[in-house]
Design brief:
By secondary structure, this protein is mainly alpha-helical. It contains 7 helices and 2 strands.
Length: about 170
């Protein structure tokens, strides 16, 4: 049995965002228990030139909603990047999940050979839908979710690999 584009995308995004949401719950509890202003965690970063936690989650959200929409041939929604708290980040995750779960497997599969063009200042990237998912979105998504995990771990949150991976 071959792996479908849908199976390699939507369920993966749902699971990892679920794991990240659980980690954010732990971050909120940690901040309360340690009397840390949660904004310290939301704005924490691993290095001065890296994005803070809030931006890591926003970028992960943008990656998956853009992926689902582009593969399905739909418009990519714009979410305002206004989150400043853990509850607002949780809401962003829920909003992203609601959007991507609105696509059927057939809609996602229809994008396998669709040309996906991303335009950046000074650059244009072209992919087939499958290559876009496998070689751009998934690595980008995992990078930002992993970095969010690392920021929280670095700031004293007692989480481990199984928190990141989740439980089946």
């Amino acid at each position: 049995m071959s792996l479908s584009l849908y199976q390699a995308s939507i369920p993966v995004f749902v699971r990892m965002f679920g794991n990240l949401s659980t980690i954010l719950d732990k971050a909120a509890a940690h901040a309360e228990a340690k009397k840390i202003d949660p904004a310290v965690l939301v704005n924490a970063r691993l290095a001065p030139d890296m994005h803070p936690l809030v931006r890591q989650i926003q970028i992960a959200s943008d990656a998956v909603k853009g992926c689902a929409a582009r593969l399905a041939g739909a418009d990519v929604p714009s979410f305002a990047d206004t989150e400043t708290s853990i509850p607002e980040l949780q809401a962003r995750i829920r909003k992203t999940l609601a959007f991507i779960q609105g696509f059927s497997a057939e809609q996602i599969e229809a994008g396998a050979e669709r040309e996906i063009v991303l335009r950046f200042p000074g650059a244009e990237l072209k992919f087939s839908g499958q290559d876009y998912l496998l070689h751009f979105v998934l690595p980008n998504f995992y990078f930002h979710v992993t970095t969010a995990y690392a920021i929280l771990r670095h700031n004293g949150l007692e989480i481990g690999k199984m928190d990141y991976l989740g439980r089946p």
